[in-house]
Each structure stands twice: as structure tokens, then as C-alpha cells.
Design goal:
globular; Aspartate Aminotransferase, domain 1; alpha/beta; 2 domains; 7-stranded mixed β-sheet; 16 strands; Aspartate Aminotransferase, domain 2
């Protein structure tokens, strides 16, 4: 039996070895101050992360789900209001809409980028549409130029789900600065992850930021004075201290992820699988590295037998989840969403992957005893309320590099204001 170390899907042990002394000092600083809830450490992280994202405000909260829910609550959603989002993302995106009082409207993905198809977004808009949540899926920015232009034309708020896109860039601007507000998660496996759950909202809106700071803290800005019915959702000081250490390394870690992705692509191009596509005008940060293949579950089992861990993002589209039967709207067909749910397999991806790790993954794929080709190259194009399908040649799926233009979005007023 082999004693070779597995190729871990995410390797937080190697990350800790790199940071051990700094994390120990940061956590010790919190304990020495005895300031565990909000306070100086959280305020410092909020300033640093807002500056990093290129926005005025960062408000730390308890999780990425809370962050997105708070933004949508701040928009003043009412029963019957609709929020458009991609069909196969982590369920927290839909949960936030539901918890905020709205109805999720699910649309298909772009076959080239796997992010929201802007044409399907446009086709799904109606008089009830209040917001769109373009998810920067797998570390790649959504097509924000077209999405912002469509949203501005219809007076729809653009709320970024940036839970997988810490440091990703679109047209020279970081994700988090491309809409009215953005939600981040600091789940431990993220590109910028804490030592437990945590999240943040980033925005240029003074009114939303002020509402969030009050809402997260029991509806209070002065102790025992509660001006609103609030929540308990505060980023812990220990999490903030750990995140400050990691934020200083985020750009370098993202560069290492890009290097790993490029090596995967250069070594796997001869195999009949779909790889991330080169889209000019963006800087991908590869939160995960999904390949598209046939016999996905058999391939995963084979890789596991070779000591390679994998993941699936995501096996069941939201509209097929039991929780969302009769609780969402699907205005058109979603052939690509349903296709990738059965065919995407995420390979190990983190900044501490070694050349040997990648070579072992590549060799394991090359020795799979069967056909790797995905069945049915389906793409979706949306016309009105109906999605039509067209074939997409396998040669269109290859590699990536970095950014191109985006108009400023014009969201409606803020009202009264995962590894996932």
C-alpha cells in the first residue's frame, strides 16, 4: 500500500505551516487585548479590505450568506420581488434571496465562462425584477460589462456574489467594486479564508454601510439602544486578525493559482475534456479548477484510487433541489446548467500545489481506463423567454488570461436600508 502523501483538494495544513508564526502573533494580540467582538482588529481589517477592493466601505459579518442576505434586505425586497441569479451555484445565493423576502429567478450559464449568461438574464427581466446577482463563479468575474449595461437600462440593482472571487479583476477593477454592493465569504477554503465562518459586504454606498453596521449588531449603534429589529452577525476579532495576515499574501497566492491552472491546461490539452477558456479582459483567481468530462463519478473514483482528491461544483442545480420546488422561477430552459451539473469535476487547486502534485493529477487522468469525452456539447442562447440550444465545439474550451471594459452600473436606491 502506497504511503505517498495524497494530493489534497485544498491544503490548509501547508498554508498554516507558511503562516504559523504570524497567525500565532495575530491571535495572541486579540487575546491580549481581550477585544473579541468587533473592535480595533475588525475595524482594521475592514479598512484594509475596502482599500484592497477599491471601495469606500467594508462591513464584516458572520458569514457570506449573511452578507448577501443583508445587501438584499437593504434593498427593501418585498414579497413578489424577483432577483435573477445563475442556475448552478452554491445554494447560499438562492437562500439569501429567500431570506430577504424575494423570489429567486434562475437562468442558464454561459458555456464559455460558466458564469451567468447575460442574454438569459436580459430575457428573464420583468416588472417584478428588483436585482440581479451575477456570481463570480470558480474565481472568474461574470460578464459585468453586459450585465451592468442591461441592469442600468432596466433600473435593476447589481449585487455581486464574490464569495469565490477574492482578488479577481475585470477591466482593471477588482470584483467587489463592479456593482452596487458585493458579498464575500471567508469560509476557510476560500482564496481568502479565515479560521471559521465569516463574511463581509463591500460597497460605496454610505447609507447601506450605515444600515449594515446597525443591523449586524442587534439593530444598535449605542449599547442597549435599539433603533431597529436587528441581527447578531458580527465578524469575530480572531477571524479578522487571521484574515489580515492572509490578505497580505492574497495577490501572490492568486498568482500561484494561475500558474497551477496554466500548467494543468498545458499538460491536459491532448485529452478530450473541457478546460477553462481564455477570455481576454479578466484576471481569473481559480478558486476551483473544473474540468468537463464524461463518466464524472467514475473519473473521480479513479483519481481517488491514485491518491488525488476532487470535488464537484455543483451536482444538483438549484431548481432541482427539494428546498426550491415551487419556490423559484425558471423562465427558460437551462440545458447547459443541467449538463455541467453531471459533467464538471474540480481538480485540486490551491497556492501550495507543487509541480509534482500537478504531474500526479495529470498522470492519473491520462491513465483513466475509459473515454473522458463529455457527452453532448450543449450551449444555450436566450431569445425572449425561451432558451434555445446550439452545439459548441470542444476546441472552444482551453485556457485563460487577464481584462476589458465595463460601464458604471446605475442601481436603484438602497431603499431603507463556500469549501462552498
Amino acid at each position: 500500500m502506497s504511503t505517498q502523501r495524497p494530493v489534497y483538494f485544498v491544503d490548509l495544513q501547508r498554508q498554516y505551516e507558511e503562516l504559523k508564526d504570524e497567525i500565532g502573533a495575530a491571535v495572541g494580540r486579540v487575546f491580549s487585548s481581550a477585544g473579541f467582538i468587533l473592535g480595533a482588529e475588525v475595524e482594521a481589517f475592514e479598512r484594509e479590505f475596502a482599500e484592497y477592493c477599491g471601495v469606500k466601505h467594508c462591513v464584516g459579518v458572520g458569514s457570506g450568506l449573511d452578507a448577501l442576505t443583508f445587501i438584499l434586505r437593504g434593498l427593501g425586497l418585498k414579497p413578489g420581488d424577483e432577483v435573477i441569479l445563475p442556475g448552478n451555484t452554491f445554494i447560499a445565493t438562492a437562500l439569501a434571496v429567500t431570506h430577504a423576502g424575494g423570489t429567486p429567478v434562475l437562468v442558464d450559464h454561459d458555456p464559455k465562462t460558466y458564469t451567468m449568461d447575460a442574454a438569459c438574464f436580459a430575457a428573464a427581466i420583468n416588472a417584478r425584477t428588483r436585482a440581479v446577482v451575477p456570481v463570480h463563479l470558480y474565481g472568474r468575474a461574470a460578464e459585468m460589462g453586459r450585465i451592468n449595461a442591461i441592469a442600468s437600462e432596466h433600473g435593476i440593482a447589481v449585487v455581486e456574489d464574490a464569495a469565490q472571487a477574492h482578488g479577481a479583476v475585470y477591466n482593471g477593477r477588482r470584483c467587489g467594486s463592479l456593482g452596487f454592493a458585493a458579498a464575500f465569504s471567508f469560509y476557510p477554503g476560500k482564496n481568502l479564508g479565515g479560521a471559521g465562518d465569516g463574511g463581509a459586504v463591500v460597497t460605496d454606498s454610505d447609507s447601506l454601510a450605515a444600515w449594515l453596521r446597525q443591523a449586524r449588531n442587534y439593530g444598535s449603534t449605542v449599547k442597549y439602544h435599539h433603533e431597529m429589529v436587528g441581527y447578531n452577525s458580527r465578524l469575530d476579532a480572531i477571524q479578522a486578525a487571521v484574515l489580515r495576515v492572509k490578505l497580505r499574501r492574497l495577490d501572490r497566492w492568486n498568482a500561484l493559482r494561475r500558474q497551477a491552472a496554466e500548467r494543468y491546461c498545458s499538460e491536459l490539452t491532448e485529452l478530450p475534456i473541457g478546460l477553462p477558456v481564455d477570455v481576454s479582459g479578466e484576471s481569473h483567481v481559480h478558486h476551483v479548477f473544473p474540468i468537463r468530462c464524461g463518466r464524472r463519478d467514475d473519473v473521480a473514483k479513479h483519481l481517488q484510487s491514485c491518491g488525488v482528491q476532487t470535488g464537484v461544483h455543483y451536482p444538483i442545480p438549484i431548481h432541482q433541489q427539494p428546498a426550491y420546488r415551487r419556490k423559484c422561477r425558471v423562465p427558460g430552459r437551462m440545458p447547459f446548467t443541467e449538463s455541467i451539473a453531471t459533467q464538471l469535476l474540480s481538480l485540486p487547486m490551491h497556492p501550495h500545489l507543487t509541480r509534482d502534485d500537478i504531474d500526479r493529477v495529470v498522470q492519473a487522468l491520462r491513465t483513466f481506463p475509459g473515454d473522458l469525452a463529455p457527452v453532448g456539447r450543449v450551449s444555450a442562447t436566450c431569445q425572449g423567454e425561451v432558451c434555445t440550444t446550439a452545439s459548441a465545439p470542444l476546441s472552444e474550451t482551453v485556457l485563460l488570461r487577464p481584462a476589458a471594459a465595463r460601464p458604471d452600473n446605475g442601481p436603484r436606491a438602497a431603499g431603507t436600508a463556500s469549501r462552498h
